[in-house]
Amino acid sequence: MPTLTTVPRQRSAEATRMEDEPEETNEVGLWRAFENQASAHGTVTAVESDGYALSYTELLSKSLYTADRIYELDPWNRTPIGILIPRGVSHILAQLAIVKAGRACVPLDTRMADDYLESVLANLHSSFILTDQENAHRLVGFTRLTVEHTVNKENYLPGLCLSPQPNGARSSRCSHIFHTSGTSGKPKAVKLFASGLINLCRDPGANWSKRGHRVGHAASVVFDISLVEIWGSLLNGATIVVLPMETVLDPLELSNFIRHQRLDVLQLTTSLLNVTAHACPSAFTTLDTLITGGEAINCQSIRSIFDSGPPRRIINGYGPTECSVYCLWHCVTPREAQHACIPVGKPFCNVEAFLVDESLVPVKAGEVGELLVAGAGVAGGYIGDEERTADRFISFPRRSSDGFARMEKTRVYRTGDLMRRDENGVHYYIGRRDNQVKIAGHRVELESIESILQEVQGIHAATVVKITPPELGRAPLLVAFCVPTCPDITPVAIAKDYVRRYPHSLMPRFEVTDRLPLRTTGKVDRAQLERQYTRAIEDTPARPKPGPWQESSLEAELRYLWLDVLGLPNKDLEPTDDFMTMGGNSLMVATLIARINHAFGISLRASALYENMTLEGLTHILTRIHRDGQATVPVHTNEEQLWLQDSQLGRRLHRLPESPVVDDWEAASEGRVFLTGATGFVGAFFLAQLLQTPTVRKVCCLVRAHDKAHGRARVQQTLLRYQLHPSHIDKLIILAGSFGKPHLGLSIEQYDYYADWASVVFHLGAKVNYLATYSAHRDDNVLATVHILQFATHKRTKPTHYTSTIAAYGPTGLVLGTKFLPEDERPAPHIPAVHYDTGYAQSQLVAETIVWNAIDNGLPIAIYRPGFVLGHSKTGVCNPDDFISRLFASCMAMGSYPRLPNQRKEFVPVDFVVNALLHISRSRESLGHAFNLVHPHKGSAIDICTGFDLLNRVSPYSMRGTAYPEWVQSLSMRPEDPLYPLVPMLREKVLDDRTRWEVYEDMAEYGRSSLHSALSAAPDILDCSSMDQLFERCLKSWLGVLDAGRGIDLRIIEGDM
Fold first, then answer.
1. Distance, CA of 1047 to chain centre
2. 625 and 722 share a domain?
3. Does residue 117 register a pLDDT over 90?
4. Full domain range(s) for residue 504
5. Which candidate among 137, 185, 595, 1048 keeps its CA 20 to 30 Å from the CA of 953?
6. Is the residue at 58 inside a domain?
7. With 0-12 CB in 10 A as exposed, 13-18 as middle and 19+ as buried, what is 832?
8. Is residue 450 over pLDDT 80?
9. How far apart are CA 1008 and CA 313, in angstroms?
10. Total structural domains in the chain?
């Protein structure tokens, strides 16, 4: 073991630059506080990871050894030490050793490039790093020490440590340096003192953890919140349990980890908490304490946790890095979550919070002011940036209640956050005051991006502004106004160089300008830039309704609209560029259609855009409209010809001549189910039911995924999303493939094996997109049906149960005058009606026709047509992204609903559909027939107005009926609305003056006789919930869609059935 010298040396200026506060010899620093815990609880496990564990005594010994190795390699130096080690035991050991050595810890992101890390450390005058074996080859110009926690140094005695800091870093010294605003480019190095960390971790009110607690370590070590997990445990005698990254990101795995590892305390960022709470709200039931922070808390997520069995307490923490992780905290109550008003709470002990106006005068209770923070935890400033430090860390005069300043002053940090404080001293977060903003969940400082742009080639000056577009509800965006060094510099060139230099940074939209407007103070007038840009958006050129178009400028305007809607920097577009492959989605399609119709004074169908997704194709359509003098685009006749031709498919499908049909797929020698659609709403419930069925031995789910792991994750997330926790999950087999591809996207070996393996096939998968054309649905709905039937007859003939939809008949009541539809009525005769329906309905008509063709050839197939599937009759869990959930949430938010006479809807709970499907599939008598899975009681079908009457009775929001055109117009003015992406479909007139929805007037009655006959032996299934009961139970889910507002994914219009 090396002997270390203790000969004193002269300290350099750099060596003392971390010690800005006076030393106090009687204080207890971080190391002594940890050492006390190790002395008192030496045999207690300090940290464990993946089966490896260290006691407090063992961790102490290894830390002492590593501290002496630091001193041996770099004696008497006091500059910070970088830690190039990811989350884990070795990283924790490294922090302890550095603190013992009296140095400051600088956690580094191992994912970042070496040149970036070198620049970060250069700013700190640091030349020493600790690494693990995996990163030992990096940063070759630095003094490096490899930390390996498995090396046996348990017998290293504390008395042998020759580090010159017997107590480690004192509380008045800098113990950690964290870099903030990393998403915006060059980060700021924030200097944190041990005193703030000790004060936070030992706060008697928050009481993060105690001896015996097992604390999850889930945060990245480059984020300051990881200090709560590490030091909040070590200073209180708790056990740190390291979570693998893949566990943190997988809600189901996280839920299992919490239970199996018996965690007591867990901290998650707001974003991660939202994902987990959405997918598995019961994940936190066994915890003592759940801590969240970093962004505004999501009330819906917290409500779902409370409703599903909450931990003993949920703490909402607030605090920038400059205040040592957290400075305010609050224990959330169910009432606060229910009323969507969760505060950030009160200060920790020894921390003060002031709310002031722009003149730094304190505001009264109930008024909004900027938060200033004083006391323990306030950072020492930004290393290497004295100007910014002086701006953010100021001397603040204490004022009495009469407003007069007292003599004493205190050092405070200006957070830039606006808050309101109630009479009880509880703080509520309002928003940002300055240019430190949040974009897509990232904290971004505009000045940091401007600093980056100063280094981008060809830019003389630049100012970045956050802009919220005035129309169409698009998300806020960052716009960088750049003054080029020469006229040839373009936004494209700027973007390319920006990405090359800072590939991990948030990229703004670039605008080139010849000058930046200045205020009288000489500073850039950001407000004027924002007004100019907003005005440019508002003045998007629209063609005058009378008068000729200029064809030469048509493509140029279309290019502008594309880029604007996609939110891309101005760039050259190729004629063959595809809107969707460039990042478009259903919401953007709706937005683009609205913008095109407004700009050119036309009525472009959604189907026209889906049929012509390239810039060249869409330009051709608009040119044709201009030349033909039309205001609308006619239905594409090629589409209809295609689906009429496809209706002949399936006629060549036959049973294997020498292969008997599986007689009983639940027999002891069978029981192997091949299932599609498990990631859809009905499919998820059906999968859960299959897994819990004793006669089902295995369920193989074909899932669209990159690989098996990805497919399993998709299925698990879907189950959790709908609060499904089926037993016997070990029965599940995941097969990554695609039913839209030949051989289901499988290898020949897989295809042959599972075709021989399966006892029965359930095909529940389908693509549902109300805006897309038939062609867009063809692969996944039509050709997929052919592929599934081919699979069902390969190797051996297997009974197949195919789910269609009552929409396969289209609006046959109005168009053809159909009054009644028996269950075995084939959809082919109703082709004239489906002509006026969506591409999805057309694809379902063709797919079911193909199935009937196969039935005529002797294939053993049963057809099931669900009605409008609502939530579970007991839990009320709905699909938040389907049309009905969006419709009801939208109408509650608007306070109105469309009056649509004679519009009967066949609502049915999802558990009835699943139970009926499974029961009927057990009988061979079902093969060759179809079953309408609608409510078994004939009188339960209600018209849409009655449905809204029921909703009005149970909803806290009052709605009034309005004329359909008026309602759609109101909806089109609400781009944040969950139903907004469907506005093109809701507006599109397809038959005279009737829209796609209005043509469903006078819909035929759906037969139920076969359904009743098949379920005669299952009265419990036939005893289906009434509409009153169903609406009451589903209300909670619909309110969740409403409450989520912008929080829900408005882009999800397309998905599995």
1. 9
2. no
3. yes
4. 439-538
5. 1048
6. yes
7. exposed
8. no
9. 51
10. 4
